[in-house]
Amino acid sequence: MSTDTSNRRYELDWLRVLAILVVFLYHSTRFFNLGDWHVKNVDTYVWVELWNVFATRWMMPLFFIISGASLFYAIGKFDGWLKFYVDKFLRLMIPLIIGSVTHAALQIYLERSSHGQFSGSFISFLPEYFKGLYFAINMPGNFAFHGMHLW
What we know:
The chain is an all-alpha fold. The chain has two domains: about 1-75; about 80-150, no CATH class. About 60% of the residues lie in helices and about 0% in strands. α1 packs antiparallel against α2 (about 45-75). It is flat. The model has no long low-confidence stretch (mean pLDDT about 85).
């Protein structure tokens, strides 16, 4: 892969930075919105719900547009499709797999503890983490095969 930055599209970088900041604010405020979430605060606010609805409408579509544009400009930098796919696999799937085993366990533990579905320490939860697949809040299964919010 080439590291030539003469054709870099900096507007895509800045859009990505903006989108990541919105994602950070979105997830930081989910503790206080009206809907269910992994860990909730006792007090909820309508204005937080309005912010979340607004952010949800354009946040992921913006990431898809940025990703598609980045792919369009990056694909020519590889010596064939196989090298491109190997690079993407190593950069994305390996961290996702490792994170699903390591980091997502803490998120599931906090969710189960705050919803009264588990009591005990994080260390005592680790064997429970590998029992069943996690699909949604308040459903059985703990292993977050999809990586939770590691993306």
